[in-house]
Structures are given as structure tokens and as C-alpha cells.
Amino acid sequence: MTVSAQEGSPIDSQLSSALAQQQEDARYCLQNIVGSIQYLSRQGIALRGHETKDELKRQHPLALYVHCGAHCLNLIAQSACRASPLINDSLQWTVRGKAIRAVLSQYERVLSSLEEMASSGSNTGMRANVLRERFEKGKTIPHQRKPPKRFTSEASQHIPKSAEEHYRTEFYKMLDSVHIQSEERFNQPDLNVLQKLEETLLTGEVNDIVDQYPELNRDILKVQLAMFRSKYTVKSSVEVAEIMRGLTVEVRGLFDQVESLIRLLLVIPVASAEAERSFSALRRLKTWLRTTMTQVRLNNLAVCHVHQETLDNIDLKEIYQQFISVTERRRHVFGSFK
């Protein structure tokens, strides 16, 4: 900080004026920095800077990781479509409903046009004739390529005898894929833990899973569940939670172990579909040029980018004051915001 000598003005007044000017300049720079971060977060531009499931389980062994149910169903549907090319092609045609309805409404004219094209005798006419025959025949068996001999050896290729047999085979391939994927996707160890906890809550039979949680006492929980089930009949953990909310504080204190068990069940989300809607923003946030960004910074940036309305309503002066109040040097450099 430099102070130019001014005649007729005390030196302490000049120092105070220079310090105030310096603090004002520092506050202006701080405002620009915070504003730039806010703008970059809205635009999805990452700043330079990995907590994973395994790391979380290492630090908190009782933390349960349950894969999103909606995402599991989505993966099952994708696998079923890949199992049968026929189903995959059919789903692609479902988005062309207007085109299909237009063909059906003009079906006779389409046939007459194909017949007229087939009479020309050209290559186009031959293709039109084949297409017209398929239109008139209705259900047909798609052309199947012969598999390589390294897969079939000397065995003959299976050829369905009718269209019904062909479509029945494709249908059962899809059902088989759905069955296998459902067992694999929903057979999760942590999901089984939640299932056993819920069975304890609904049946009153305390199992060994309860002993893993220090906030639960096996004997007291068994007694409280017997008292609770003798007065209320419930079929789901949601009903138990609604009953507990309706109880007074004094009565709820009699079922403190039941309340703790309900809290353990309710902290695990059934699905993360709402959070996964923000996945489309990842392509804008983490590009090939920003691969050095860590998971923690990516999470913080994604929260700011997805919740832009909340970001706009943040009181920036409060952030400035929190930043300044950390150390004495910052209070001396920036002063205070009014």
C-alpha cells in the first residue's frame, strides 16, 4: 500500500483513506471471483481441481448401496430388446405411428402402385413385386442368414415352419432375457439387508441383521415390536411411519427402537430417477479437455449446474462475509460488506 503525501492532510487520515480504498478494491475483486464461479457453474464450465462406493463402504461399513430400481428396469428393457432383433425393430417402428397410419389408410392405393411398378420389368419393378407379395401375404418369416459352420459344424440350420413359430421363438427369447436380467439386477446384497430389516418391522421376528446396528437393541426392539403389533395392523413400512408421525411425543418415546428401525429404512431412496435426470448435464460438465477434474469437484459443480434457480437465490454477501471471517488477515484486507 502506497500513500502519496498530501499537504494539509494528517498522515493518519491518509493511511485510513488508502486502507479503505484498498479494501474496496479487494472486495470488488472478490465479487468478480464469486460472480465468475456462479456464471461458470450455470454454464457447466468446470474449474480445475473420488469418493466411490468402495471408499464409502470402507469408511462407513453399515452404509447400504442400492442400485436405482428405475435404472434396473431400464437396463432390463434394453437387454430384452437386444436379445431379439425383431423386438428391437418393432420398438423403432412404434415411434413412426403417423407413417404407419398413413400406409394403413392408403393400403389399397399402395398395393395398386406397387402392382403398376412391378409391371415395368425393371429392377425396381422386381423389388416392387416382392414387396407387393409380402403386403398381400401378411404374416411372413423374415429372411434368416445361415450361421457360420464354426458355430453349427455339420448340423442343419433350424428354420421355423410358420410365421407363428418364428414369432413365438422371438417372444420367448425376450421373456428369457427379462427373467435372467431381473434376477441379476435385483439380487443385490444391500437390498437383501433392507428386505430383512423390513421383515423384522412387519413380522416382529428379530433376525441377526439387527445386531449389526449399534442404535438397535435386539431385546428391547423385540418387546416394542410385540407391543406395537398388538395395537396396530400394518402391511408396509410406510404405514408404520404414518402411524408413528400421528403419535404424540410421549407415546412415540415408548417405541424409540421401532422409530430408529423406521429411520434406517426411510433413509434409503427407493429410486434415484430424479437424480439421474441430471446425467445429461455430465456431457457439458466433464469433456475430454477436463478429464483431470476429480469426483468431489464434479459433484459440487453438478449441484450448482442442475439447481440453477437455487444458485441464483443465494445471498452473495453472506458468502463474502463467511470468506472474510475465516482469518484476521482477510478481515484486514477486505474489511466488511454492508
Give the SSE string: HHHHHHHHHHHHHHHHHHHH
Q: How large, in whole angstroms, is the Cα Rg?
A: 34 Å
Strand element count: 0
Helix and strand composition category: mainly alpha
The biggest sheet amounts to: none
Number of helices: 20
Taking the alpha carbons of the first and last residues, their distance comes to 23 Å
Question: What's the overall average pLDDT, rounded?
Answer: 77
Can you give the helix content as a percent range? Answer: 55-70%
Shape: flat
| Residue share in β-strands | under 5%
Q: Extract low-pLDDT stretches.
A: 43-51
Description:
The structure is a single chain. The chain is mainly α. Among the domains are: 69-186, no CATH class; 189-266, no CATH class. It is 66% helix and 0% strand. The protein has 20 helices and no strands. The chain has helices at 11-43, 53-59, 69-83, 85-94, 97-105, 107-118, 123-137, 149-152, 163-186, 189-203, 218-231, 237-246, 249-252, 256-266, 273-276, 282-285, 295-306, 308-312, 316-324, 328-334. It is flat and about 110 Å long. Residues 43-51 have low confidence and may be disordered.
